[in-house]
Known about the structure:
InterPro entries: Glyas_Bleomycin-R_OHBP_Dase, Glyoxalase_6, VOC_core. There is one protein chain. By secondary structure, the protein is an alpha+beta fold. The chain contains 4 helices and 16 strands.
Amino acid sequence: MTSRLSALCCNALDPLPLARFWAGVLGRQLVDDPHDGVVLLPDDDTAFRLRFVPSTEPKIGQNRAHFDLTSESLDAQRQTVARALELGGRHIDVGQGPDADHVVLADPEGNEFCVIEPGNNFLAGCGRIGALSGDGMPEVGYFWSAALGWPLVWDQDEETAIQAPYGGSKITWGGPPLMPKTGPDRLYFDLAPPAGGDQQAEIDRLLALGATLLDSGRDDAGRVMMAAPGGNEFCLLIPR
Length: 240
């Protein structure tokens, strides 16, 4: 059995206000979890949790991953943009050009995200968060496909994408050119080992797939920090 994607984590200077922003944009319920801090619960059976983690590290440069939010209509796209701006988001320019059909925004801590125009066939049926789109060469997609047991749903022109067998958000990697890594990733995965599994056995499996252990090792809660091919961090939780 493989690890399960427990949550997408976001490092935040002030987690609660940032979580409230995303709860308002996504229409998700915010809870205070004694183990995991501030969490947004999934909005259906195919979605993953969002966890907001306190950090003293400021954001430096552009994130190497961002959300692509879907829209059912042009009016829905405009409503999402207006809601995000009302909650403290802002328009930003990442080189998208004046003719782009998608809208590029940043949340209150500067994390980039896109509100995609209606009619995007690639994200059809993927849910509110259509994709977590990131930088990465094909080997990154191959690693995460094997690590999570999610099939590849795109593998062309050095771009890859995976999606859970039951549907939901896609996770994509755009291939070269890659943005420089300017510091610790602000967005990273929490992986839960298989139920009743052995954390060390799962560490060994992930290492065999191409992951590396980070110098920080285990934290006080017994979680293990690792990196996927390409250097993006993730956290392996202790079995519960």
